[in-house]
Write a structure and sequence with these properties.
Layout (H helix, E strand, L loop, with lengths): L2 H49 L3 E2 L12 E5 L13 E5 L3 E11 L6 H11 L6 E7 L4 E8 L2 E2 L7 E6 L4 E7 L2 E6 L9 H10 L8 E14 L4 E13 L5 E7 L5 E2 L10
Parallel strand pairs: 1-11
Antiparallel strand pairs: 2-10, 2-12, 3-4, 4-9, 5-6, 6-7, 6-8, 8-9, 11-12, 12-13, 13-14
Helix pairs in contact: 1-3
Protein name: Two-component system regulatory protein YycI
Keywords: Membrane, Transmembrane, Transmembrane helix
Pfam families: YycI (PF09648)
């Protein structure tokens, strides 16, 4: 045995091990510093927000860890279409459109309640959607799908769109839905809502004299896994009223505390 070569190999191996252990130590030390800094900042967060007139009511006190979620865009088959008096057709495999030869009345007024009742009764798995908004100029209502019993924000492939005429009668609706929803194995610790609000403030996104109406956890599309598969990320929705009375919605990555742009320039992959 060539002891000289063996000695050299051992020296190289132990040198690499020492570098690895030292880098690991630095990573842990850096993370500890981050925690300490966040702790120091959190003590003054409320004061800084108050100085700029940013107020909020009761925020969620406890934030349970949440998993990432995987799901697949559904391909509608003729044997899975809703049973009703509408004319169903599938457009491009994933989009279901249902037209009514005889428009369906929504009742005395068009509201979240009457629209929700319509979707639950007429759409495929209609109870898996939650009302989002009415676009009055287009006689349209938007519903978002729920995943893990939470709202999936602004995913084009997890929505129902309801359209009605000037008489308040639904003429047709369009629908896309995710299926085969699976939860990630390891739930992630989420940032508290006050930290999400403070992130918006630090980045100059949250104007002075803003009132935070509420904060809630939902999901947003994180990555396109394949052509039909998506991964969803736990996401804070921060609903706010600005000083001039304007309503705004902000979205924050609830795991890594990054701002997410949703509803303004929608990603075609969603």
């Amino acid at each position: 045995m060539d002891w000289s070569k063996t000695k050299t190999i051992f020296i190289i191996v132990f040198s690499i091990l020492n570098v690895f252990l030292y880098s690991l130590y630095l990573d842990r030390y850096t993370e500890a510093e981050k925690v300490e800094i966040l702790g120091n900042e959190s003590s003054s967060t409320e004061e800084k927000l108050k100085e700029d007139g940013i107020s909020y009511g009761k925020l969620p006190e406890t934030v349970e860890p949440q998993p990432y979620i995987n799901a697949k865009m559904k391909k509608f088959g003729s044997n899975e279409l809703p049973n009703g008096d509408g004319q169903e057709r599938v457009i491009g495999e994933h989009l279901l459109r249902v037209d009514f030869a005889k428009p369906k009345p929504l009742g005395e007024e068009i509201s979240a309640e009457t629209l929700t009742a319509f979707v639950e009764e007429n759409a495929y798995q209609g109870k898996e959607y939650v009302f989002w908004e009415i676009v009055g100029a287009e006689n349209k209502a938007v519903f978002f799908q729920k995943v893990n019993d939470k709202t999936l924000y602004y995913s084009d492939n997890g929505q129902v769109m309801v359209y009605w005429n000037d008489k308040g009668q639904v003429t047709y609706f369009e629908q896309k839905i995710y299926e085969d929803v699976g939860l990630g194995e390891q739930p992630k610790q989420l940032i508290p809502p006050i930290q999400a609000i403070y992130t918006l403030y630090q980045r100059g996104i949250l104007p002075a004299n803003t009132t935070i109406d509420f904060a809630e956890i939902g999901y947003s599309v994180y990555v396109q896994v394949s052509e039909n598969d998506r991964m969803f990320l736990p996401t804070w929705r921060i609903s706010a009223t600005l000083a001039d009375g304007t309503k705004e919605e902000y979205f924050i990555n609830a795991v890594n505390n990054g701002v997410i742009e949703l509803g303004k320039e929608e990603d075609a992959a969603k």
